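input
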Amino acid sequence: MASIPCITYQPFTSKSKSLTSPLSSSNLASGFLGIRKKVGWLRLNSVIGPSNGSRATCWFRFGKNGVDAEGAGIYGSQSRNDFDRDDVEQYFNYMGMLAVEGTYAKMEDLLSQNIHPVDILLLLAATEGDKPKIEELLRAGAQYDVKDADGRTALDRASDEIKDFILNFSVQRA
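output
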C-alpha cells in the first residue's frame, strides 16, 4: 500500500456584528464532520475530519494485491501507441536536454523523420543511459534498431553497459 500524508486544518473567519466579549456567547458544537462553532465574534468553520489540526496517514491500495504499480496502470502498462509527440517533448525537457542544446532543433529533427515517438524516446533514453525509462519503453514495444537521420540506432548511441542492458532485456522478453 502507498501512504500519503494528509493534514487537516480548520479555517478561521471573523464575522463581527457587535463588539461583544468572546466569552459572552459560547455555543460550541462538535468539531468533527463540518459542524459550525460560534464563540462570540469568532466563527470557526470546520472541515470534514479532525478539527484540531492533527496529522493523519491515508492508505490507498493500488493494483490487484495492493502494491502492483504495473497492474494499477501507473508504470509499465503503456503500449507503443500510448506515446506521442508530447511525451517526447516532456522527456526532452525533463532530462535537461533543452538546457544543454539550447533549442528544440534536435527533438524536432527526430520528430520530422517519421519515427514513432516511442522509438525516439528510446533513442534519447539510450543516449542518456536512463535504464528505468529504457525498460519502460522496451516493455511498451519500442524498437532498438530504428535509425535516426545519422543512421544511428539506440544501440549505437548507448554506452556498452546500456547496450548490454537493452540486448539482455530484449532476449528475456523473446
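quick obs: The helical segments are 85-94, 97-101, 105-111, 117-128, 131-140, 154-157, 160-173.
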